[in-house]
């Protein structure tokens, strides 16, 4: 296991406990530490109502029951305003919690606010990424530079594998 050393103000070590609070789509503060005992699928996406982001959110929503059965919450984070998220959820009938990070504070902590290039122009933006956080609040799996197609199924499979390994380890004690 890696050390718990905190590098700068970014989460880099799998054993480090994650701490975050952001506003959700209902204008309420959502804090990870209030979800102890549950697994959390935390994914970062660039923007509401864009094709790739809509597909990813819809895919997570399609597997909502599977994640709930696995004792996991799904939470998306983007730089969009709190006003944008309810419209996005309503328009696409999403079953997710969406958090707003307009100042990119949490995105920088997770090292997903990155330089990007499009049509020769450089800018800062969200690098699509997903993290599995265990019930103790530690990142135990991450995906960087995510390709949307098949990603949600891969995350669900990894979650079940991690839970199975943890159950097996617990029964061997």
Task: Walk me through the structure.
- The protein has 173 residues and is α+β, with helices and mostly antiparallel strands.
- It has a single domain (21-171), classed as Glutaredoxin, CATH 3.40.30.
- Helices cover 31% and strands 27% of the residues.
- The protein is built from 5 helices and 9 strands; from the N terminus they run E-E-E-H-H-E-H-E-H-E-E-E-E-H.
- The protein has helices at residues 51-62, 64-69, 84-92, 105-109, 151-171, and strands spanning 21-24, 29-31, 39-44, 72-78, 97-100, 113-118, 121-126, 129-133, 139-143.
- The strands form 2 sheets. It has a 7-stranded mixed sheet with strand order 2-1-5-4-3-8-9.
- It is globular, with a radius of gyration of 16 Å.
- It starts with 20 loop residues before the first strand and ends with a helix.
């Amino acid at each position: 296991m890696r050390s718990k050393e905190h590098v700068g103000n970014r989460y880099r070590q799998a054993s480090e406990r994650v701490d975050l609070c952001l506003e959700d789509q209902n204008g309420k503060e959502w804090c990870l530490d209030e979800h102890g005992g549950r697994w959390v699928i935390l994914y970062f996406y660039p923007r509401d109502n864009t094709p790739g982001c809509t597909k990813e959110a819809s895919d997570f929503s399609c597997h909502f029951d599977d994640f709930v059965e696995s004792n996991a919450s799904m939470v998306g984070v983007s730089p969009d305003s709190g006003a944008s998220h309810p419209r996005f959820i309503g328009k696409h009938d999403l079953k997710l919690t969406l958090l707003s990070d307009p100042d990119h504070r949490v995105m920088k902590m997770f090292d997903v606010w990155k330089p990007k290039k499009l049509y020769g122009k450089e800018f800062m933006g969200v690098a699509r990424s997903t993290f599995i956080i265990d019930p103790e609040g530690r990142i135990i799996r991450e995906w960087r530079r995510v390709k949307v197609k098949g990603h949600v199924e891969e995350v669900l499979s990894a979650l079940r594998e991690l839970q199975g390994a943890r159950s097996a380890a617990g029964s061997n004690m």
